[in-house]
Design a protein that fits this description.
Rossmann fold; 3 domains; nine-stranded mixed sheet; five-stranded antiparallel sheet; globular; disordered C terminus; ligase activity
Length: about 500
């Protein structure tokens, strides 16, 4: 089954609005019919099995183009709308794409060759006004590639994660099951749809007949809070920085009442326990789901049910329905209880592989198991804990240090909003530790530095104490809300 037909199976005739908001709205029925026209246009003009790029902020234009590409039997390649020209050129060449759906404002900033067919909103509207729907073969192989999501690779070149129609269907079913989603759910979306976490919100709510509210301006915290209340959102999804900013930067968030809000989900990296405690203390009656996943798993691999937040602090929980997880030690054997090793995953949500990269695919998927690259352990109750990313481990004088442990200590200092621990190239130690700290308000940085070092001395071994502390004015985030860590050189005289 084509994932388009799966998503609209019981909602294609609904007059109810799928997209709510002050700027744009669209009903299930119109979204279905408009997407079908885009699909028909693509089938008539480029056929099937082509890679079609989509570069746009979250909008009706994105929704219609995305779903239309999927239905057409072509492969959607959603890209960060802040993409650099060099990366766009690389992806265009690698995918051999000749068709690009692109928002008008973005097209002005990027250069596209004359042989690229660029479809902007105006052209898209023309298609919707003139295109007649065509017939599609319902005998559809759901193992076909539905989308390619490019992620940053270890070599610096983006890696294209190939996700099939079956992958999306499997992950959507699993998420709907454990979050208990229904047609009454309304999700506040601050995550971009070129990010797999954002796409999972789109897929799940479209499938159950719920609704979404788009907010592309998280920096304006008042608008986020207003959306949650005005549109009676039952769900909110964010990455760690979203919660840190809401808790530390907003003066009113923790005192607001959100009577319709049922649950909150957090993924996209570790949210330290101190922030989870602060959030759940402010909103004790809301269900807070800690989740873990990767693009290579379509989105989601595990979740921690809210009732275990206090007893299984820092755990990523257990596998989502229809997914298996295990920890393998360096010998390749299944790890013992609380023994650290690499986390492996298996299920129908695991990617087909990396686009035109057999070597990386064979390294990531072995005997049907996805090697996540995360160091983890499992406790006696079957709950999993991420200890560190393999590539994030810092070796100070040969000793292994996890950044997360140090970050947790520094974040316990009340004046600290955010902390990122990275490794510095060091002539003596091999690697030294840099702490990049964001403070809540204007504070005396010299005094705060002393306070942070004192706190570290109380709770950490001496080799885990940062050799250097730098202060930043604000959290530096990508459009997905994630932070980027850069390795620096730190040579002592």
């Amino acid at each position: 089954m084509n994932v388009f037909d799966y998503l609209f199976n019981s909602t294609k005739d609904l007059e109810k609005d799928f997209l709510l908001g002050s700027k744009e709205t669209i009903s299930f029925k119109k979204l279905y019919n408009d997407s079908l026209k885009i699909a028909s246009y693509l089938k008539e003009t480029i056929g099937e099995h082509q890679n079609v790029l989509l570069i746009s902020p979250n909008s009706v234009f994105f929704l219609t183009a995305y779903l239309g590409i999927l239905k057409s039997g072509n492969t959607c390649v959603p890209l960060n709308y802040a993409i650099e020209q060099s990366n766009l050129d690389y992806i265009l060449k690698k995918t051999e794409s000749t068709t690009v759906f692109i928002a008008k404002g973005i097209k002005r900033k990027l250069k596209l060759d004359e042989d690229i067919h660029a479809i902007e909103e105006r052209k898209s509207l023309s298609i919707l006004n003139t295109q007649q729907p065509v017939d599609f073969n319902l005998d559809f192989d759901n193992n076909r590639v539905a989308e390619i999501i490019f992620t940053s690779g270890s070599t610096g070149e983006p890696k294209g994660v190939m996700l099939s129609h079956k992958n999306i269907i499997a992950n959507t079913d699993s998420i709907i099951e454990y979050l208990k989603l229904s047609s009454t759910d309304i999700i506040s979306v601050v995550l971009p749809f070129f990010y797999c976490y954002g796409l999972s919100l789109l897929h799940t709510h479209l499938k159950v007949g719920g609704s979404i509210v788009l907010n592309n301006s998280f920096i304006f915290l008042g608008s986020v809070i207003n959306d949650l209340k005005t549109y009676k959102c039952t769900g909110f999804a964010g990455v760690p920085s979203h919660f840190q900013i809401l808790l530390k930067k907003s003066k009113t968030f923790k005192t607001e009442e959100f009577p319709d809000l049922r649950y909150i989900t957090q993924a996209g990296g570790k949210l330290h326990a101190i922030f989870i405690e602060e959030f759940t203390k402010a909103f004790p009656n809301k269900e807070f789901y800690v989740m873990y996943g990767q693009t290579e798993a379509t989105a989601r691999l595990s979740y921690l049910p809210p009732e275990f937040l206090k007893t299984k602090t820092s755990s990523i929980g257990k596998a989502i329905p229809n997914v298996e997880l295990k920890v393998v030690n360096p010998k390749g054997e299944t790890a013992e209880i609380n023994e650290e090793g690499e986390l492996l995953a298996r299920g129908e949500n695991i990617m087909l592989g990396y686009f035109k990269n057999i070597k990386e695919t064979d390294f990531a998927i072995k005997n049907g198991w996805l090697h996540t690259g995360d160091v983890a352990k499992m406790d006696e109750d079957g709950f999993f804990y991420i200890m560190a990313r393999k590539k994030e481990i810092i070796k100070v004088g040969g000793k292994r240090v996890s950044p997360k442990e140090i970050e947790a200590v520094i974040l316990s200092v009340p004046e600290v909003v955010d902390c990122t621990i990275t490794g510095l190239d060091d002539d003596l130690l091999g690697e030294a530790i840099l702490a990049t700290v964001v403070l809540k308000d204007s504070n005396d940085e010299k005094k705060l530095k002393i306070k942070i070092l004192q706190e570290c001395s109380k709770h950490l071994s001496h080799y885990k104490i940062p050799q250097k502390i730098e202060f930043e004015k604000s959290i530096k985030m990508s459009l997905t809300g994630k932070k980027s860590n850069k390795r620096l050189s730190f040579n002592k005289p």
